[in-house]
Structure formats: C-alpha cells, structure tokens
C-alpha cells in the first residue's frame, strides 16, 4: 500500500535562477497524480527533490514522519527504499541484458539468493509484458520495451511510491495508450502512490486521480482531475485544453499587448471531461471515484457531454 507525500512551501533556485517557490501539495496514498507544465518549469527538478537528489532551499517533504529535506544521509537512504523510479529514457545499462538490468537493484540492495532474485525478476517482467525478452540487450528492443523494462526494474523492490518521468517521451500514441493502461493496472495491483510527469494532454485527461500544474515559478493548481478539467482559471484552462488563448505564449508568458488583444476574444468552450481509464480487469482501483462525483459534491456543472464514451473518444483526438 502506498504512502502519502506531504510537500510544504518547497522552494528551489540555482544561483539567481528561481525554479519554483512555495510549492505545497499532498500526494495521496495509493493514488495516481500527474504533474505537468510548460517546458522549463522544473518538473524533473521536483521529482529529484522528492527523492532527495536535490535539496530544496526552503520547505519540507515529509514521508512517514521523516522530512527528507533535512534528514540525515542514513535516514534518507532508508526512505529511498520506498521509491521506485522510471527515468525518461529507461536509463538501462547498455552492456547488460534486460534480466540483469532488472535484477540490478536486488543484487545491490538485498541479500537475496540468485534463485529468489530470478523469481522476483520474472514476476516483474511478466507484470510489464516482457516475458521471453529477458536475454535481449537494450539496444535490440524498441523504445516502448525499454520503458517497460525500466518499469520492471523500478518495481523489483516493491516500492510504495513510484516516480515516472515523461513515460510518453519518444512513444507514438498507440504505445502511449498501452503504457497508460499499464500504469492504471499496476496501480490497481500494487496500490502504490504514483507521480507521473508528462506533457501528453490526453494522458492527463484520462489517467490520474490528481493533477498538478507548475507555471511561472509556482504551483498554479493541484487537485482532483475533475476540478482541473472543469476549471476556468486561465493558465489551467489554456494548458489542459491545448488552447492558444491565455497567458502562456510560445516562450513563457505573453506580453501585455498580446494579452490585451485577446481580452475581448471569446474562449472556445471547455471540452467534455472524459471517463477515467479503468483497470483492464474491470475491478475498480481503491482510489477510483464514480464519474462526476467531484463535480456533484462541489456544485460544479461539467461541460456538456462529460463522462461518456464519446467524450473519452473526443479527448483522444484532441491531443
């Protein structure tokens, strides 16, 4: 079962360059959260801070009562055992076959016998659909297979928190859909806390329980999927619906003249909120909520046509 991650007033800068300031959120235990934002807003830096590779200048990151922003190296080493990480490119050792790549954390961090290691490695490779490919080298397989192998390696220590950096990078839409389904199925199976960094808007609209948006050196919004997909907050609405009208420009922010020119322009309507992706076995995840529940509980009228198969299909064509 996953654990929650409580982030409070997190601030980081490199020299005079402020990355983000005052980031506060809680990744709920066992839920799938997604973090997105324009390029260069510090999403990968945020992941590195969560696992203690980068120390924030201010704030705290509390996991099971330990603040990893200020704890000792020994405490950090223990907390890191709760994490699994899927790097953007898979980060496989090119000279090792997939079996040895996946077995590497077990050989480094446990005293298990080779027989026990084999059982675990084969179980995890089966979970990600790679049985039969264990003797292949990373250079002999597709990008999608390398990501799945990286995911198997991230799973071998049975993590309670899984950090995933741009899993759709370099994948075509079909493979992206397959890996999204794999994340949902794995969350249902292992009940870990997931945080996915992505730019893929379709994935953001159908996969997570929670969505966060980093923009202009702060956390613009973080909360339930339905809250952000029905939001009229300008930067959230613009980014999640891939619109040109709004504060985000080609580089970062639009200038005052551009914003003034858009002031009287009619915004396109919000698209329908699609159904959330479900586990392939049809059994709901622990964190899964009935479609439209957040909107009903908060008195929000969702866009027309929301929570239908047609909306799900339309969302797939939008990205």
UniProtKB/TrEMBL annotation:
<keyword id="KW-0547">Nucleotide-binding</keyword>
<dbReference type="GO" id="GO:0005524">
    <property type="term" value="F:ATP binding"/>
</dbReference>
<dbReference type="InterPro" id="IPR003593">
    <property type="entry name" value="AAA+_ATPase"/>
</dbReference>
<dbReference type="GO" id="GO:0016887">
    <property type="term" value="F:ATP hydrolysis activity"/>
</dbReference>
<dbReference type="Pfam" id="PF00005">
    <property type="entry name" value="ABC_tran"/>
</dbReference>
<keyword id="KW-0813">Transport</keyword>
<dbReference type="InterPro" id="IPR003439">
    <property type="entry name" value="ABC_transporter-like_ATP-bd"/>
</dbReference>
<dbReference type="InterPro" id="IPR027417">
    <property type="entry name" value="P-loop_NTPase"/>
</dbReference>
<dbReference type="InterPro" id="IPR017871">
    <property type="entry name" value="ABC_transporter-like_CS"/>
</dbReference>
<protein>
    <submittedName>
        <fullName>ABC transporter ATP-binding protein</fullName>
    </submittedName>
</protein>
<feature type="region of interest" description="Disordered">
    <location>
        <begin position="268"/>
        <end position="319"/>
    </location>
</feature>
<feature type="compositionally biased region" description="Basic and acidic residues">
    <location>
        <begin position="309"/>
        <end position="319"/>
    </location>
</feature>
<feature type="domain" description="ABC transporter">
    <location>
        <begin position="5"/>
        <end position="241"/>
    </location>
</feature>
<keyword id="KW-0067">ATP-binding</keyword>
């Amino acid at each position: 079962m996953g654990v929650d991650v409580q982030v409070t007033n997190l601030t980081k800068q490199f020299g005079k360059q402020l990355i983000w300031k005052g980031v506060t959120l809680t990744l709920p235990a066992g839920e799938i959260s997604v973090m997105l934002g324009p390029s260069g807003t510090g999403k990968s830096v945020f992941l590195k801070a969560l696992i203690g590779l980068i120390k924030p200048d201010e704030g705290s990151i509390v996991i099971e009562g330990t603040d990893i922003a200020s704890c000792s190296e020994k405490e950090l080493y223990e907390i890191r055992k709760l994490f699994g990480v899927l790097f953007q490119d898979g980060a496989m050792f090119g000279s090792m076959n997939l079996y040895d790549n996946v077995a590497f954390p077990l050989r480094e961090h446990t005293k298990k016998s080779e027989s026990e290691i084999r059982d675990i490695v084969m179980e995890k490779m089966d979970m990600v659909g790679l049985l039969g490919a264990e003797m292949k080298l990373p250079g002999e397989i597709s990008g999608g297979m390398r990501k799945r192998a990286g995911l198997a390696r991230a799973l071998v220590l049975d993590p309670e928190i899984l950090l995933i950096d741009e899993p759709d990078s370099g994948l075509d839409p079909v493979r992206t859909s397959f890996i999204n389904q794999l994340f949902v199925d794995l969350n249902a199976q292992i009940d870990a806390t997931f945080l996915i960094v992505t730019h893929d808007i379709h994935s953001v609209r159908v996969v997570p329980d929670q969505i966060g948006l980093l923009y202009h050196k702060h956390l613009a919004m973080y909360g339930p999927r339905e809250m952000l997909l029905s939001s009229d907050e300008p930067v959230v609405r613009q980014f999640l619906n891939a619109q040109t009208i709004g504060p985000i420009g080609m580089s970062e922010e639009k200038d005052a003249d551009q914003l003034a020119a858009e002031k009287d322009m009619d915004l396109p309507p919000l698209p329908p909120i699609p159904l959330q992706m479900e586990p392939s076995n049809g059994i709901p995840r622990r964190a899964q909520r009935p479609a439209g529940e957040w909107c009903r509980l908060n008195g929000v009228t969702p866009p027309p046509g929301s929570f239908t198969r047609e909306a799900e299909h339309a969302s797939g064509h939008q990205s």
